[in-house]
Amino acid sequence: MRRRALLLCSALAVSLALALLLGPAADTTALAGGATARAWAIRILVPGRAAVGTRVLAAPLGSSAVAGGAFAYPADGSVVTAHSVTSRVSATSGSQARAGAASRVTALSLFRGEIAAVTVGGRARASASPGSASGAVGGNGITGLVVLGRAVRPVANRPIALADWGYAIALEQKAQRIDRPAPGYHDFVTALDVFLTARHGGLPPGSELQIGYAESIAEAGRAVPLPLAPSEPGDDALASVLAKPLSVTPRLGGADYVFPVYGNSSFVDTFGAFRADVPGHWHHGDDVFAAVGAPVLAVAHGTVFSVGWNRVGGWRLWLQDDRGNEFYYAHLSAYSPLAVDGAVVNAGDVLGFVGDSGDAEGTPDHLHFEIHPAGLLGIGYDGAVDPTTYLHGWRRLQTLLFESPAGLASRAVAAHPPKTGAILLQSSDISSASGLDPGSFRRVLSPARTRAGP
What is the rounded distance in angstroms from the CA atom of residue 309 to the CA atom of residue 316? Predict the structure, then answer.
């Protein structure tokens, strides 16, 4: 039997090959550990005004550093002056999460010398693995601290009186270990924190001057159980409970769903139609017809699971949204790089591409789409509801962002879906041709008759 083969562009072909090689999905997925860090050298907070100061650095959006250069606020330096400022942050996520932050100020003067220090610095670090978590605010310090003309030896978290206009806290710091849901650590330090309780130096009461701030957070990765899909057609064991389809249309709990196929498509209500090869002998979804290779989209934010081959559904996958509802996609021609068990996706992300795999081979290309509301999952596979009303109401995307694999740049697509690189409409076996009979090649390579649809 001749079979049509879809040849996607090289990036998509790579993702399909990976899907073929990976095999059955595991029952759990590793949730990568997280790490974040923040730091700034100087920040002035005045009630009713936007915060001002040196650059706020944050990771993992980017690890960076600012070093050298003087700072003054306002322009005449009557509130803050510093000879140089430095801030650094770093964060690494994974099974071993690490975060670090540091800031340093030299030759600090506040309120024209009423508070002065040779150096002021804060440093925080945190790390976490599946078995433990730790951190420290070591390396902090203030040298040459002078307050209202008197040398002061700073003690962590101890207030320092500032006459009748405020107080300061030197080496203000806190650390906390977290044990659930996974080991983690959070610590921060403000090397010098000045609070005004009365108007002073042109600043109103309630103003705050933060000098040498650093914060680090790390959380270990952990195993998260994947959602369970009801037994579906093609599984070894089928859960058939209802002889007739449900006639309810429950609310799914949100209004942020999108239509599951991008671009031109059509569908009619075929829910409940007779099907001898499925539990209950009725069609559990609707078929959305579109061109082969049309992008198949996540209808909501959620978790992808049960990615792989099924005898009836072909290349198929499930999606569970944040409200517990589950959606079944079948007869795909290929997967996108996001089609990985445990992947968390957004509404509109490309999960795969329309095709005719499984028992749909030979039919017009389409996506078989089902809706299994959270409240009906206990019924099993027959807990599906008619998708038609939902599909008519869901938003159709006009643009989408297509995620390419292997670090290739994403591209915004408008008006038309991503095009396939080529489509092989037919193939011929020339092994039966004979070099002694020139006519045999002509007969073998002659166009095949178009295959009729069902």
Answer: 6
